[in-house]
Design brief:
Strand 2 and strand 3 form a beta hairpin. The chain has 244 residues and is of the alpha/beta class. The chain has one domain: Metallo-beta-lactamase, Chain A. The protein has seven helices and 14 strands. Bound molecules: zinc ion (2 copies). The site of one zinc ion (ZN) has 4 residues, from loops.
Length: 244
């Protein structure tokens, strides 16, 4: 099996753009897959030496701007190069995403353009393939009726945005990394996963958890020390992690 690596482009929560919108680049088999593409993702990718025209595949977890706001820029840059990225998108997200993107992308110089002029759209039910690799997605609960998804591969899970998931009742066989959205602050009307609930999980699960989509409070001395002493990890932007 060839190596697969993940590098976070940004790790910030929706209102912490200073760490970049939460997004990660998977690299494997001479190709790549961008997980989410927020409004700060394109400029941060360039800082990493990766141009928009080097992205082959994109997967989107849900419709919030910190996860999709960079798609227009990536679409235009690739369009001008005569290039189309594979956009893997859940069937129930696609109508919203198409409407959102076409509000600007439909205006061509000489004709009205469609989403297929910019992306190869690949609708997902439960799973999708890139070469010989199969990725799976599963619905999460995030906000109201908005469809939101997490992504699974042999060794890792990328939660996207989600409320608390009881990992103790899940089969985590083979899973070594759970890249988990983490809300440090307490909130009564919770649409994210509170840090306290992650800390309440058993040690063998905590050790797999890599906090992402966080606010600056995660780096408060006492908070960071607690996360580390409980065996959990904090993902930092631009540091590659070998997944297999
Ligand atoms: Zn978010
Ligand atoms: Zn969200």
């Amino acid at each position: 099996m060839e190596k697969m690596m993940i590098t976070f482009i940004g790790t910030g929560g929706a209102f912490t753009p200073e760490y970049g919108n939460n997004s990660a680049l998977l690299q494997f088999d001479n190709t790549n897959l961008l997980l989410d593409c927020g409004y700060s993702t394109p400029v941060r990718l360039r800082k990493m030496g990766i141009k928009e025209t080097m992205i082959d595949n994109i997967w989107i977890s849900h419709m919030h701007a910190d996860h999709i706001g960079g798609l227009e820029e990536i679409a235009f840059k690739n369009f001008f190069q005569g290039r189309r990225i594979n956009l893997f998108i859940s069937r129930d997200i696609f109508p919203d995403l198409e409407q959102y993107l076409l509000a600007t992308l439909k205006y061509g110089v000489t004709r009205q353009l469609a989403i297929a002029d910019y992306f190869n759209i690949i609708m997902i039910n439960k799973e999708f393939r890139i070469g010989r690799r199969t990725f799976k997605q599963e619905k999460t609960e995030h906000i109201g009726t908005m469809p939101a998804y997490m992504l699974f591969y042999n060794t890792f899970i990328f939660t996207g945005d989600t409320r608390f998931i009881d990992w103790t009742v899940r089969d985590l066989c083979g899973i070594r990394f759970i890249f988990h959205e983490t809300r440090v602050e307490k909130n009564d009307n919770e649409v994210h996963t509170n840090l306290e609930s992650l800390l309440s999980l058993p040690k063998e699960i905590r050790e797999k958890i890599y906090c992402m989509h966080y606010s600056e409070n995660i780096y408060l001395k006492t908070t960071a020390a607690r996360i580390n002493s409980q065996g959990m990890h904090i993902v930092e932007p631009y540091k590659a992690i070998v997944l297999e």
